[in-house]
Design brief:
The chain has 343 residues and is α/β, with parallel strands linked by helices. It has a single domain, classed as Rossmann fold (3-Layer(aba) Sandwich), CATH 3.40.50.720. Helix content is 39%, strand content 16%. The protein is built from eleven helices and 13 strands. The strands form four sheets. A seven-stranded parallel beta sheet has the order 3-2-1-4-5-6-11, sandwiched between helices. Strand 1, helix 1 and strand 2 form a beta-alpha-beta unit. Helix 1 packs parallel to helix 2, helix 3 runs parallel beside helix 5 and helix 9 packs across helix 11. The protein is globular, with a radius of gyration of 19 Å.
Length: 343
């Protein structure tokens, strides 16, 4: 993509102070887009981490930031009215599977009401393409692997997953009713520098360095399609100009369930190489030069045994090929962690 043609293009990134939002904003700033970021800066995890990411973004002339909550419809409408965005990338959401069990309304506010506010704003201020975060959690207890966008996803095992599936349904309705091109991205266990402290690799690193035991759920027998954040945001970047057009002769008995008669598309975006939790922990131990004290526990409510992405359509459409090994990615995370926390 020619960066010279990006200078007059405005991109809204919601959740810009979040983990993926920060990395995507950084990439698009470098590609000379005009990036407008919003975030509510909530305290679900350490706000200092969000402020640290934001401080780096604010150094760039082609980035501007507004502290806005997605559920504040008036603020969202005002922002869209004043900026006239070319593209919108909705990454803001209440994250976390386990937290959804104890705090369900946080997910309703952000992931449902907030997303409808974005859809309504795109309806009233048409954009070239709305991309939004879905999640591999929509696959719930699916046994067939790798997970394909052609598989049924009507059996979520957490409220978080149910809200993400709802986002896909809402997007489809708006794509059909108002011809808003939408692309949903089912992320598979994203990790890397500036990551979320509630994620396993962050918790493990924290605990091992402070001499605390780590909790290893399902006795380490779970598998995750760990995907390095740079690979994820490169994929999103390549999808921005690829707005779905819809297929007038779409037939659900023959055609891919991830597309539609509406301008709508769903992609898996993952590493396509699941890693067992025990292996993942051993790589962290190697990078830290310190062994973990492990407490083996049963599977937690809302968790799934395995995630594994079929990314064949992403390979076909944008030549998506994750290139970061688990050893390299975790090495970069550990280096960042030691630098950020002055260890």
């Amino acid at each position: 993509m020619d960066t010279n043609s990006n200078k007059n293009l405005k991109v809204l990134i919601t959740g810009a102070a979040g983990f993926i939002g920060y990395h995507l904003s950084t990439l698009l700033i470098g590609k000379e887009y005009q990036v407008i970021g919003i975030d509510n800066m909530n305290d679900y995890y350490d706000v200092a981490l969000k402020e640290g990411r934001l401080a780096l973004l604010k150094k760039h002339e082609n980035f501007s930031f507004y502290k806005i909550d997605l559920k504040d419809k008036e603020a969202i409408d005002d922002l869209f009215n004043s900026h006239k965005f070319d593209y919108v990338i909705n990454l803001a959401a209440q994250a976390g599977v386990r937290y959804s069990i104890t705090n369900p309304y946080a997910y309703v506010d952000s992931n449902l009401i907030g997303f409808v506010n974005i859809l309504e704003a795109c309806r009233n201020n048409p954009v070239k393409h709305l991309l939004y975060a879905s999640s591999s959690s929509v696959y719930g207890g699916n046994k067939e692997a790798p997970f394909s966008t052609n598989h049924n996803v009507d059996h979520p095992v957490s409220l978080y997953a149910a809200t993400k599936k709802s986002n896909e349904l809402l997007a489809h309705a708006y794509s059909e009713l108002y011809k808003i091109p939408t692309t949903g991205l089912r992320f598979f266990t994203v990790y890397g520098p500036w990551g979320r402290p509630d994620m396993a690799y962050f918790l493990f690193t924290d605990a091992i360095l402070s001499g605390q035991p780590i909790k290893v759920f399902n006795h380490g027998k779970m598998e995750r399609d760990f995907t390095y954040v740079d690979d994820i945001v490169e994929g999103i970047y390549k999808l921005i100009p690829l707005a779905p057009r819809g297929k007038p002769d779409y037939d659900e008995t023959k055609d891919d369930l991830s597309s539609s008669f509406a301008p709508y598309k769903i992609y898996n975006i993952g590493n396509n190489q699941p890693v067992q939790l025990e292996k993942f922990i051993s790589v962290i131990e190697d990078k830290l030069g310190k062994k973990a004290e492990k407490i083996y526990m049963k599977m937690q409510t809302g968790d799934v045994l395995r995630t594994y992405a079929d990314v064949s359509d992403l390979e076909r459409d944008i030549n998506f090929k994750p290139s970061t090994s688990i050893e390299s990615g975790l090495g970069k995370f550990v280096d960042w962690y030691k630098d950020f926390y002055k260890i």
